[in-house]
Amino acid sequence: MHAAMLRSRAALRVARPAQRAFSSKTIFPDEPTKPSVHTDAVPGPASKAASAEIDKLQDPRTHVIVCDYAKSKGNYLVDADGNQLLDVFQQISSIAIGYNVPQLLELGRSDEFITAALNRPALGSFPPVQWAEWLNTGLMTVAPKGLDKLVTTLCGSSANETAFKAAFMAYRQRERGSRDAPFTQEELDSCMVNQKPGTPQLSVLSFKSGFHGRLFGSLSATRSKAIHKIDIPAFDWPVAPYPTLQYPLNEHVKENEAEEARCLQEYEQILIENKKTRPIAAVIIEPILSEGGDRHASGNFYRQLRLIAKKHGAFFIVDEVQTGVGATGTFWAHEKWGLQDGEEPDFVTFSKKMQQAGIFHKSESRPNQPYRNYNTWMGDPMRTLQAREIIRVIKEFNLVEHTRQTGDVLTKALTDVFSRHQNLVSNHRGQDVATFQAFDFATPAARDAFVGKMRANGVQIGGCGDMSVRLRPTLTFGEEQVNILAETMDKVLKQI
């Protein structure tokens, strides 16, 4: 079956037109050419009925639409009513290539994938014989510079929590002076009642408006919206300011440099002040603060964050759960920061577009004993195979570069649209990060009205923060889809 699968994939690749410039049709020949909405509203009656049925079992209040994934294709999402929507939100930035990618469907039919899916192992104790091969031919081929170790996890939140644990353990190993230093009996006894010295008073520093997940530890580092955190006990961890910049960044360089310098000074002071009370073992930051309103800063700001953390002995975690896997025109968004040799992050976390979640890290942050950063599943071999095939398709069709080029087309199209609606839309940003662009409305109500009208006109788009709209299309999103998006946006803005 494996040989047959390889022949089938080879046939798919041979069928690709040799001289044709890339478009999503290269991978999805039968992808729709435009949106199609035939209900009076979106969600329509079938979506609403499906949500009502789900309501008997689960809370449906966050439903946007109920989807028919079997009919969805490429950049187009089909809902329960048969409406065909151009999807520039892609499951909250989680679909890398599109719906029903032929190469992924072929993988799903293989014996290799079926065996991995139906015999899910406790990876930390009973890995499959192919595990090293699957990692070396997939995830490790895109490992960030300087990070040659990997832990697979279940989701983005658990990836960040795994990085927290690894940072805490490495920090304490460094304090003891040796990786091999044994635990004292006092440490072993006191940790069982959550007391020092076995349970140290260490902390993770995060930034205002950042989002790092909704599990217990990751939620303590999340700072985007109160609704995420209200009523939940939290660790007393510090928060640093994130610069409030003027957009576009290249038109406000002097003012933004001053604001970034102010935030860097306060950030360093927090690191210093916490050394005596609750030392900061790790700093975590998103390359773009996505859920908190798609907030951007300069590459130099991020480089200084890393250098200051290193100066004060804090491990540096880059949360690429939403920004990774080519979405910003480089495979990892932090590649744009100008980091030099020796300045690379200590951890990079990933999930979403990769489908498999996990952390890349260095040798020094591997725990000194087994079972310390461990759980039953530690990820999923099925998702690891899926990630490998996604990476292969991205490389074969040069989709990271395609996304970078599409970003230029998108910037031009949106600039043109916004020039006619300056009374409604402001702060267009992300022009230097490919299709990872965003813009603001004056009020939450105006933003929500825009998102709803876009959906009714056949484009699924997403909000973030209080008043922002963000674009999260696939890596196959191209000029054809940009034109549809821009025309629809212009039409909807005229209606608001």
From TrEMBL:
<dbReference type="GO" id="GO:0005739">
    <property type="term" value="C:mitochondrion"/>
</dbReference>
<feature type="region of interest" description="Disordered">
    <location>
        <begin position="23"/>
        <end position="53"/>
    </location>
</feature>
<comment type="similarity">
    <text>Belongs to the class-III pyridoxal-phosphate-dependent aminotransferase family.</text>
</comment>
<dbReference type="GO" id="GO:0034386">
    <property type="term" value="F:4-aminobutyrate:2-oxoglutarate transaminase activity"/>
</dbReference>
<keyword id="KW-0032">Aminotransferase</keyword>
<protein>
    <recommendedName>
        <fullName>4-aminobutyrate aminotransferase</fullName>
        <ecNumber>2.6.1.19</ecNumber>
    </recommendedName>
</protein>
<dbReference type="InterPro" id="IPR005814">
    <property type="entry name" value="Aminotrans_3"/>
</dbReference>
<dbReference type="InterPro" id="IPR015421">
    <property type="entry name" value="PyrdxlP-dep_Trfase_major"/>
</dbReference>
<keyword id="KW-0663">Pyridoxal phosphate</keyword>
<dbReference type="Pfam" id="PF00202">
    <property type="entry name" value="Aminotran_3"/>
</dbReference>
<dbReference type="GO" id="GO:0030170">
    <property type="term" value="F:pyridoxal phosphate binding"/>
</dbReference>
<keyword id="KW-0808">Transferase</keyword>
<dbReference type="InterPro" id="IPR015424">
    <property type="entry name" value="PyrdxlP-dep_Trfase"/>
</dbReference>
<dbReference type="InterPro" id="IPR015422">
    <property type="entry name" value="PyrdxlP-dep_Trfase_small"/>
</dbReference>
<dbReference type="GO" id="GO:0009450">
    <property type="term" value="P:gamma-aminobutyric acid catabolic process"/>
</dbReference>
<dbReference type="InterPro" id="IPR004631">
    <property type="entry name" value="4NH2But_aminotransferase_euk"/>
</dbReference>
